[in-house]
Amino acid sequence: MPQVIKDLAIAIAKETENSDFHPQSCLINLYRKGEKLGMHKDNTEENLSAPIISVSLGCTGILVLGGFLRTDETKQYIVQSGDVIVMGGESRNYFHSFKGIVPNTSNLLKNGGRLNLTIRQVN
Ligand code: MD6
Ligand code: FE
Description:
This protein has one helix spanning 3-15; strands at residues 25-31, 37-40, 52-58, 61-65, 75-79, 84-87, 96-101, 114-120. It is mainly β. It starts with a helix and ends with a strand.
């Protein structure tokens, strides 16, 4: 992972009182028009207490955040380019999904769309 991404994640973690975050992996998802990510929990990491730091780049999109159970009530959040989400504490283990992008809201990416970086401490 490039050092600049590690440094960014560490700085973001510090802002949310997570002063011992060790970035070990960065998953990059690309969404074009109409593409989504289904309801899931990120629970394959060995360490489920470290937060996950997420950075949105490019088109605006809609993130859906639920609770511990798949059937829990959800809330929708508009995420814009440069927005950061920290799933830490209780929310580390909440269900969530990505509903899709709002096309043509950014020209950061050459072919449009949105990139989402999720930076994780694995163990
Ligand atoms: C997305 N985000 O924003 C999907 N997971 O495209 C996630 O699945 C996610 O934003 C864990 C922590 C933060 C996230
Ligand atoms: Fe996730």
